[in-house]
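Batch job 17 of 40 flagged for manual review because the log was empty.
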Amino acid sequence: MPERRRRNPARSFRPRKPGKAASVTGIVLAVVRPGDLAAARAQMGFSLAWHIVLACLGVGLPLLTVLAEWRGIRTGDQSYRLLARRWARAMGVLFAVGAVSGTILSFEMGLLWPGLMGTFGQVIGLPFAMEGIAFFIEAIFLGIYLYAWDRLEPRKHVLTGLPIIVAGIASAFFVVCANAWMNQPRGFTLQDGRVTAVQPWAAMFNPAAPPQTVHMILAAVMVACFLTASVYAVALLRGRRDRYHRLGFFLPLTIGAVVTPVQIVVGDWAARFVANYQPTKLAAMEGVYHTGTHVPLTIGGIAQGDRLRYGLEIPDGLSLLVGYSPDTEIRGLDQVPRDRWPPVTGVHLAFDLMVGVGFFLLLVAVWLAVGAFLRRRRGRFLLPRAFWVFGLVAGPAAVVALEAGWTVTEEGRQPWIVQGVMSVRDAVNPAPGLMVGLWLVLVVYAGMTVGVVYVLRRLAKQTPVPVAPQERDVEDYPVT
């Protein structure tokens, strides 16, 4: 007899047949009411949407702070040092609040989704454990960085900030690896409804991990940079154009501008990955209902029946983007049962919003580059007042793009919580009363939002900004 081909347990699983959820999870013992499922999804979605902004600031703000302090030491410019000192204080506040919201999320994973964690906890436990180690490293060195500001020689003090940057990036990497696994589950085998042959490293480094982690880390840097720049754009629009506020605007904006075109390239990489590995998600993102070639690219539009209406169509656009040829076949939603369709309108509009904001930020980056080029040629930074307005809008716009991107990632996978293996309904806690938890979370997060804004405003007002008379001369950065 020919030798049987062995299956690689790190890359194999048997998708369950519809209606067999209880045999896999062993947890769903009752019928989940639609209201409870909606409450669990709303609570998790709101918590993630709130926490992810702080997580991005935890990745990008340490980079800005250490860079500003290093520039201050190197150039002797006290404005850089003052920026670094203020950003460090804000970083400490945001880290503390982010730790609270992150703890809430960790409890929600077990309380709201016991089917997921009870069945696959041994598979995806590694990235969560590694994220916890990175979190503690970040907390330790953040404490050292804040406490030792006036107690260490400046060059040594800058070095204490480097582990904060590395740990923040590592923390984001490990968490996104766990989410990537939900899109491309690997590292286990399902046998008779039980998870066997677990390989945690194969699960963590699944095919979706590279594009998702790079895309997320760059997005975090962009959010932190553009949000910080938008704060100083307000001051510039109010006429405070001293060197402190100019540096506070241009330093983060420059970093964000450099990252933006790289992010667009990475976003294209991530979209191509979705086209190859999650064609149903791509069909929802682009509103493709019927499989075929010469598929147009549709901008905007609302799903009605089996087509996308009121959108702007670019002939052959999607086929050209995916396969560089109008003959490229795009798999439509007609290839999967209707009850497994993602919410097309929401996913499609969120994707268009993310892409649109990305190109708006690219416009800001190009505008800044042109201004820098003219400064080198003419010795003056010629930027109109409208540029400050664009800089102000860039911060909230980056947050909108971030939230829209996560909407695409999560909603585009529906109805699966683990792609092709476990549905959201099978993973949710069947116990009643989840709506109470939703209202409690809304109250807690509203209180934290008010508290964060209040504390940050108090910190901004505590230390006056020294403005020398010559610093009021703005001929280096004139507004035309």
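Reviewer: the log was empty due to a logging misconfiguration, but the result itself is present. The beta strands are 189-191, 194-196, 297-299, 302-304, 307-309, 312-314, 416-418, 422-423. Unflagging and moving on to job 18.
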